[in-house]
């Protein structure tokens, strides 16, 4: 059953095996260049494509009805981002996730501004029934999808990451036809310290830069990077949980490097693309060793009256 009042155990540093997998998975993303289908919003499409290209994967911005499903069948992974969910794009998105499920293509859901806006919130819940591998959002978006919050201020969070733990765990363990007996999906919550959980285990990723919130697409492009790392992780026997966390570490390492050279948001954006291209697998491994911690989800009473 799904725990009612989950908390996290005391954090432990990432172990040597995790550090090694982080370096190896980053290398695999560079070497294999996963093909990432992006059904994303019109505001961030260009930046998202450039972030993928700088990092190694190949972007494909295919969301047209009649093509989106065909492409999801051949893509390494798919990103569904609800930033500007016009009617035709919603049709294409549903085609894409149905084909992804049929062909075993992992996909990432980014429920931009879920909560205060009815149409996209209902659509996000509909998409959840198609079993995304990862749901990535800020704390307010995740709480809204979990049914324990009303959303943020437009695309900005009004809740902090720690407050999202119960909602993130519940969202990870509940899915269409799923009873919470095992993880159903990974949930990634972005914030000052990111939280990634499958409902049983949790990983926190520190670092990054506040400047990511000052350029359009800083969070949305992360969804595409997560998709790429999950795709490469499945080919390398790395769990979706660890793959998503390593994607965050890669992204945060690049953001920190870019912030050191940037004079402000404009120069940061260009420096960030350069940093994504320059970060090495060993850099990511070192970042995981220094800035990433792991924990176990501790449950409260479940609906049956036992302990989660």
UniProtKB/TrEMBL annotation:
SUPFAM superfamilies in UniProt: Ribokinase-like
Presence of keyword Kinase: yes
Keywords in alphabetical order: ATP-binding, Kinase, Magnesium, Metal-binding, Nucleotide-binding, Thiamine biosynthesis, Transferase
InterPro entries: Hyethyz_kinase, Ribokinase-like
The reaction(s) this protein catalyses: 5-(2-hydroxyethyl)-4-methylthiazole + ATP = 4-methyl-5-(2-phosphooxyethyl)-thiazole + ADP + H(+)
GO molecular function: kinase activity
Cofactor or coenzyme needed: Mg(2+)
Residues the entry annotates as binding ATP: 136, 190
Keyword presence, Nucleotide-binding: yes
Residues the record lists as binding substrate: 61, 217
E.C. designation(s): 2.7.1.50
UniProt pathway annotation: Cofactor biosynthesis; thiamine diphosphate biosynthesis; 4-methyl-5-(2-phosphoethyl)-thiazole from 5-(2-hydroxyethyl)-4-methylthiazole: step 1/1
HAMAP family (UniProt xref): Thz_kinase
Record function comment: Catalyzes the phosphorylation of the hydroxyl group of 4-methyl-5-beta-hydroxyethylthiazole (THZ).
Family: Belongs to the Thz kinase family.
NCBIfam families linked to this entry: PRK09355.1 (NF006830)
Protein name per Swiss-Prot or TrEMBL: Hydroxyethylthiazole kinase
Source organism per UniProt: Zhihengliuella salsuginis
Record gene name: thiM
